[in-house]
Amino acid sequence: MNSPTSVWLNCKAATMQTGAAQPYGLIDDAALVVGGGRLKWVGLRRDLPAELMASCLHTHDVHDARGAFITPGLIDCHTHLVYGGNRAGEFEQRLNGVSYEDIAKAGGGIASTVQATRLATELELTKQSAPRLLALMAEGVTTIEIKSGYGLALEHERKTLRVARALAAAHPVTVHTTFLGAHAVPPEFLGRSDAYVDEVLRMLPILHAEGLVDAVDAFCERIGFSVVQTERVFAAARVLGLPVKLHAEQLSDSGGAQLAARYKALSCDHLEWLSDAGVQALAQAGTTAVLLPGAFYFLRETRLPPIAQLRSAGVPLAISTDCNPGSSPCTSLLLMLNMACTLFRLTPHEALAGVTRNAARALGLKDRGVLAAGMRADFLLWDVQSPAELSYTFGSCPRLQTVFNGLIL
Ligand code: NIG
Ligand code: FE
To answer: Is residue 139's pLDDT more than 80?
Structure first.
């Protein structure tokens, strides 16, 4: 256990605070004071109040960061991490020329993961999913969102969300759960998508009452659900006071972003086909755009999300792995930083903000994502000379240490 107050010295900090004078909210010779799982003070070493330093000396809890760079803990704000099996066979099919949409229409795709997920017990699903979580944590993820959506029936959606909660209980990481019952129409409802939406509306309050749901998502797409169907799900979420987010405009422009904006969605995710009207709607609603370069890469998409328009409209940009078996079997958030820069032309600063400050925003979490007094003491020590290195390298991990809730892991 850490003593109540500790201080970190001999470090540089990328605070990621907005409106900071320096890019990344950089502090060259920084000090961070931690107490009770929170940051109590963050600033220049020379400005550290003497009484704070004295209380740390008193408890002998002074940490020498040896020149490391400190950033907020990373936040992976869009994952489907809990699933059974894998889809390597479909990957081979796609390399032989069959498209992602055609595979889905032929009963593969999400449906095949649904089958494997339904067959797995809670324990098996936990065992299959834990290595993915550990891989993300090894790169500095301290908060992760995990969606359901491969169960598509009450008992299996419940199982998925319970596994997400169990993973949180067993690991030093915050898990935010999202109910994605409206991910696909399961085989037993084939051709009866409205009836399946009825079923989603039946599941939601039950799972919410069991404490398993933090937010609600849907896949608004021609191979998913229509805007009208998605709105039914959003209206049900609103009744329960749950925030919404949306898989929108991934394969086509269905106007999902405008719907999400009307419901003041926390985030709209994917967005390759987002229209100008969609950009304006997100900007006005204060909705965060979550960009998923792993899915763009893995599906070999060619249409880029309208980054320049989002940027000039002032829409906050977040980045995530979209960790899932079909479109992004990825467990590296650092690789997503690199891809956000190379594929989407984000700056390294925007990319890092996308997995810290703006990712927190995409989850509606106000207590993390930046280094500042009052925030959770979730932060990382990196062996880098500048924060741009986190986006620049790929395939390596310069993480030295994770501090989670004030505790050194
Ligand atoms: O975010 N777009 C919908 N859902 C996932 C893919 C799901 C799958 O193919 O299994 C996504 O890309
Ligand atoms: Fe997704």
So the answer is: yes
